[in-house]
Design brief:
Elements lengths: L35 H11 L2 H11 L1 H10 L10 H7 L14
Helix pairs in contact: 1-2, 2-3
């Protein structure tokens, strides 16, 4: 059976209540699987604790931890980082090196 690209009907979409947190993205085009890094980073940076609980239900704490450990620390708000470290068991953040221009 050939693999079909996802249509809008088959796309796993975000709850409508998250729309304000994705102001710089085309909300309708976001897919939970395809854009998981974007979803996790945006909700960790701008979401509430209830939104974080939704993240855990949707992706699982291990996947959230994996994503957070794979990105530069500068992608997460400095005020949010300590709580995210505690709740998602992120022992250390990846250092963001400056370019050598």
């Amino acid at each position: 059976m050939p693999i079909r690209p996802r249509t809008i009907a088959h796309r796993k979409q975000l709850p409508e209540s998250f729309r304000p947190l994705f102001w710089s993205y085309r909300f309708e085009d976001l897919d939970l699987d395809e854009h998981r890094k974007t979803v996790i980073v945006q909700l960790v940076n701008y979401g509430t604790l209830a939104d974080w609980r939704w993240l855990v239900r949707e992706y699982g704490a291990a996947e959230i931890r994996r994503i957070l450990q794979s990105i530069p620390s500068t992608e997460i708000n400095p005020r949010t980082r300590p709580l995210a470290s505690l709740l998602f068991s992120v022992p250390r953040w990846r250092h963001a090196y400056r370019g050598t221009h």
